[in-house]
Fold this sequence. Notes:
The chain has 502 residues and is of the alpha+beta class. It folds into 3 domains: 9-46 and 159-232 and 339-379, FAD/NAD(P)-binding domain (3-Layer(bba) Sandwich); 89-154 and 234-326, D-Amino Acid Oxidase, Chain A, domain 2; 404-499, Alpha-glycerophosphate oxidase, cap domain (Helicase, Ruva Protein, domain 3), CATH 1.10.8.870. It contains 13 helices and 20 strands.
Amino acid sequence: xxxxxxxxxxxxxxxxxxxxxxxxxxxxxxxxxxxxxxxxxxxxxxxxxxxxxxxxxxxxxxxxxxxxxxxxxxxxxxxxxxxxxxxxxxxxxxxxxxxxxxxxxxxxxxxxxxxxxxxxxxxxxxxxxxxxxxxxxxxxxxxxxxxxxxxxxxxxxxxxxxxxxxxxxxxxxxxxxxxxxxxxxxxxxxxxxxxxxxxxxxxxxxxxxxxxxxxxxxxxxxxxxxxxxxxxxxxxxxxxxxxxxxxxxxxxxxxxxxxxxxxxxxxxxxxxxxxxxxxxxxxxxxxxxxxxxxxxxxxxxxxxxxxxxxxxxxxxxxxxxxxxxxxxxxxxxxxxxxxxxxxxxxxxxxxxxxxxxxxxxxxxxxxxxxxxxxxxxxxxxxxxxxxxxxxxxxxxxxxxxxxxxxxxxxxxxxxxxxxxxxxxxxxxxxxxxxxxxxxxxxxxxxxxxxxxxxxxxxxxxxxxxxxxxxxxxxxxxxxxxxxxxxxxxxxxxxxxxxxxxx
Length: 502
């Protein structure tokens, strides 16, 4: 970072390296805008890596009459699958009918709307099933009869963020991680942004427009810019647990609870089951968000209502939690608060503008980015073109959306030293970009040091040089999910190796 008066002037400075910030950076850079992105930690370090990992319309949002949000989300499912078929794939969800909860006619009506209002084309429609005969009924307690199977999508949420940032950088955006914005000063039509790296180095940047995409810290950044706060947000914590695999089939479950809430149980990383989420108002620190003991127990109790194999908090392998910055619409319960988004533009004639991103969900990030860039068009003379991101694949996603099996077969053929699990993990993480670091390797030793569980020096080097990884945690919990498998010694060895890199 430079602190000289000749600092380059960016058209757009985006503060926040989550899914919304990286999505806006990608869209704007692809339309010819000079883009700067500043993130105080690692990309996807906060809320954007703490989702339920779903690309979905939000079936339960129909109960709150959010038809527009559901329609927009459903329309995005297949668009996102098309541009990122390595990290996004279809998933069938089993919804058991439970007497005394939502009536069957309401479930059928909701699923009919879900099938028809979002332009579903490639995804299969809803089916009625008998859980006494369907494979998805086998792991459940006796007594479940009628159920439904519907379609949605799964996503590696952190990699979705990384790939948007990578594509933005490939199109000219300047990405700075571990760079915290300390304050912003408006000087007429420009912003001066004072920042500090994790190393302690300070400097400044200049930009015509600032996009405040800091998620739950959105109001804090306004205070650092000495701007008025003209909208309330509601911070809602969603917590998840991961346990050993509870079922062997490829479907996920959508479960109802007597208190009106719902939760999911999803196949995860081959050997695990992901269960979540909760909805709790969050009032604590945003630096160390964690699932509470009460939330862990709540999710275990919910799972025990349905699965024959009981789980307890002691069986939980990993927990994670994220805080969602929702627009405060006055809803009484956290789960009823809207998941829609708002874009608030501040600044008048002759003043530098700031666009504040409030709310949103990972499924609608691309549409949010399009709207954000379009909203700023009058103030960005260099901006050209229209929405382009729906048709351009993300890095590694340049193959047919139904072609993942062929891609995995090709990797298995060309790299026979990789076992089936390693091929599956690598192909689903990197797509066609896997060959950038696998190269001409003919044996595992050709990829350098083997840190364990298929992670090699070649992959770690790629993640450091191409995907901004700086710590072992960046690699093990965001770029991959190998943290579920690494022991303390393996993690320490990887950390030492990374610290020794120049």
